[in-house]
Amino acid sequence: MPALFRTAGRAVCCMIRPLSVVLLLAWLLPVGVFAAPPPAPLALDPAQRNWLEEHRQLRVGVVLQAPYAQYDRRLQQLAGANVELMESLARLLQVELVWYRYDDLAALEAAARDRRIDLAPGLSQTPAGLRLWLFSDPYMRVPHLLVGERNGGGAVELEQLGMTDPVAVRMPGPVADYLRGNYPNLALRAAASERQALQSLLRQEVRYAVLDEAQFGRLSREPEFAGLGMVGDIGFPQLLRVASRRDWPQLAAVLDAALRALPAKELEALRERWLLPKYPSLGESRGFWQNLSLLLAVLLLATMAIVAWLRRQQHVLETRLADARHTIELRDAAEEALRLTQFSVDESTVGILWVNWDSRVRYANRAAEDMLGYAQGALLERPLSDFEVSLSMDRWLGLWKRARAAEGPLSFETQCRRADGSELPADVSLSFLRFRESEYLLVFLTDVTERRRARAALEESEARLTGIAANVPGLVFRLERPHIDASVVFAFIGEGSESLVGYSASTLLQPDRGIRSLVHPDDRASYESTQEQALREERDWHWQGRILTQAGEPRWADIKATARRFDNGRVVWDGIVWDISANKRIELELADSRAQLRELSAHLETVREEEKARIAREVHDELGQVLTVLKLETSMCELAYAELDPGLGERLDNMKRLIAQLFQLVRDVATALRPPILDAGIASAIEWQAQRFEARTQIPCLVEVPESVPPLSDAKAIGLFRVLQEALTNVIRHAEAHTVTVRLSLEAGELCLYISDDGRGFSPSERRGSSFGLVGMRERVLMLGGRLSIDSQPGEGTTLRVCMFLDKEEAA
């Protein structure tokens, strides 16, 4: 059969060889193999000629894109329109070209920036390219064509097309941008390449396609696109230029001269050879194709007769060969499966025994031999009673019948005896097997030594945990949620519950009980809110409140639980309930004691302020009256006796000055005890105190108070004023500030006082407990029902904030 094919092939080759020679000559003539000799040297000026003499070798970079430049791997050379153009210019300039090929324009421009190439043909002039190249005059104009079916109705105008005539164009690209900007009525369809655009046209997905003349000329040679032709020009030509290095203007001038010297016919021939579309014209060679068709018909008839006979023979042979191959494949697959099965059984970690009806071993894998401590092959023909003493023949026959009839599970735990007499804890499973004419029981042995050891350790651990939980002076519990959508249940409650609340653990583990049922009704809301938040956020849980024992006795309890999340989504909370009744009783008594002490301190402070006010009034009224009388008597004495004794007048003047100083001292003492400005309102008192501070320290003090401040009770006004005095005193002593700001504001029913400075600041945590001034201010504010906060950092100043709630009368 192969000999017949070779004979027919030789006959066809002998007939086609002369035709191939003719076709080869017809192809070589247009390409230029028999081209004319190179033209005469180009006439250049002396400077250009000298430069060209120094640069006889030029490096040319081209982007591989048919038909401009393409690389023939068989011939190991470049071809294309741009390649032939540069070879013509090289003959004119009598220089040698060194070619460099690149896959895209970005790689070509990178090579130009690195000075690895000198010139590049076939580029279009762009603003970005002008920063990198010097461009020659255009040597070729490549229009963009509107392509459609050649049997259409002639030329087509783009203005006449509408949304019902879709046009395929490569996107993104300048051509698509031009069409979108100048012909908004077109229905453009994106295509990844020119070939894809033409294929869309063939599949009638679009009506027309837009691509340049070069690409259409290349693709039109393919039989697939033989029925397509140009139906219009979109008016957006591509001008091809030769780009050269910007630092070689002489090269740009030489290239312009050489391009002008090229004959127009040669450029047109180059365009026709590479760029213009080639439509098949069968009418021009009708006789050739008729003769070729006749020859091929004769050859086809002869070949068909031979092939028909050969195919019949081939079909018979192929059928036999396929059957034999299938049989071999099935046999190989069966053997491979048998080998894999045997290997799996031999290498299994589970001991496997094939046992006959007489309880003797017919096969044992390596795992069974290792478990029982026998050498390889030593288990064969041994009865099972050698390994399991309690397995008598009667019991074995009973197991045989049950396994043969498939009655219930045949699995049990036992103690096997090893070859050295030691015991082996094992799980035994039995399965009936019929192989050909024989029947066996498969015995599967699993070593459970570690499992039993782990089970014993787990039981011991559970017993230890139960004992510890029962002896802990509290109630130990575990809350568990199997997955995110499941409800939370108590998985464990220790026996200490009976000593704590009188209920047993089993009672509290009932579905409707739990710890929730022990909570005092008044505290149940806080219990549920803290528990739900901890469960929702999967974090630790802490709650303090009252619970009720079985006898109805209330007790204070503290619940703390730690959350743990596992990879499978399970979350558990392990916690304990402590009885803190004694501690809570002490805490409440201590809180009552502190409240009484604070009330006593407030009472003492009120008494002290009242005493200060009384003393201030007495000092101001009594001493003021006495000093006034003394001043009048001194003045009368001066009028009566000053002229009699000159020394007496001087003494009376000294007495009047001392009386004036005493007047000022009395006013200062009365003001210090209780400033009269407080009667004008807290806002006026704050401004007055700020002015005194600024006059005393020369530190600017900025004050901001609202236009209308509600009248405060005397205690609140004095308290705020005393806090302001103490804060300003601390600024003088410690802050080293340059500016102080005091602001009084009304915020959501509260009156807030802010005292800020830009001093050196301090750490509140370090001063806590060591500054009696801050402690006094805080206690004074707490006595008035307000709150005080300090914001300070070393080197960042200090801000003191005091807020007090306004009574209904004050707010009104």
TrEMBL record:
The PAC domain, residue ranges: 410-460
Domain Histidine kinase: 614-808
SMART domains: HATPase_c, PAC, PAS, PBPb
Pfam families registered for this protein in UniProt: HATPase_c (PF02518), HisKA_3 (PF07730), PAS_3 (PF08447), PAS_4 (PF08448), SBP_bac_3 (PF00497)
Keyword Kinase: yes
Claim: Coiled coil is one of the keywords in the record: yes
GO cellular component, one term: membrane
InterPro entries for the chain: HATPase_C_sf, HATPase_dom, His_kinase_dom, PAC, PAS, PAS-assoc_C, PAS-like_dom_sf, PAS_4
Domain PAS per the UniProt entry, residue ranges: 484-538
GO MF term (any one): phosphorelay sensor kinase activity
Leader sequence residues: none
Keyword set, alphabetical order: Coiled coil, Kinase, Transferase, Two-component regulatory system
Coiled coil: 583-610
NCBIfam families the UniProt entry points to: sensory_box
Protein name: PAS domain S-box-containing protein
Organism: Pseudomonas indica
Lineage, broadest ranks: Bacteria, Pseudomonadati, Pseudomonadota, Gammaproteobacteria, Pseudomonadales
